Hints:
By secondary structure, the chain is α/β, with parallel strands linked by helices. It has a single domain, classed as Rossmann fold. It has helices at residues 16-25, 53-62, 66-73, 83-86, 187-198; strands at residues 4-8, 29-33, 44-47, 78-81, 91-92, 98-99, 107-110, 119-124, 126-127, 141-146, 148-151, 156-162, 165-173, 176-179. Strands 2-1-3-4-14-13-12-9 form an 8-stranded mixed β-sheet. The protein is globular.
Amino acid sequence: MTTTVGLINYGIAGNIHSIKKAIEKAGGKVQIVEKESDFKRVDKIVIPGVGSFKDAMEELHKDGLVDSIKKEISAKPTLGICLGMQILSTLGYEYGKTKGLEIIEAEVKPIIVDAKVPHMGFNSLDVKHHNSLLYGLEDEQFYFMHSYEMVNYTDIIALTNYSGHTFVSAIQKENLYGVQFHPEKSREAGIQLFQNFINL
Length: 200
């Protein structure tokens, strides 16, 4: 039976079409989620995101998706990608202080590093806790593009080093996962990650 992955479209996603193509290449069926009733037709959820924390939360509130996302995440395996991971946090500090989805106890702050920001390009993972999402991908490189980082101490499954600065690159809390990188831009390693997610 094909797994149906609900891809949340909340106006700011930006990368939604490349994620849809990558999930389909990994063997999943994609249902675009734009309203609460769409969740009934999906087995798993992906929260994409390119843009700012503040705009993302404003869009989700405007679309009336905040409460249904919180409810669905507790029941279905979920993957947040880049900004989609960051908005799982308690608070974000991009363009002022904004309340996130408050699912992960974390804050999203600017990367402070003696190097170019945004951190952009392929980088490796230091997997701290072996898990199903990153299984077999411990030695692979993934594509990053971000100026902010999630500061969390309890749900970390992978860290990444950028010019001497270590930041959280993957999290897990029960059946909820988040990755700071873009699997849809990470070639074969990204397709494998989506296959792992579909197989959870």
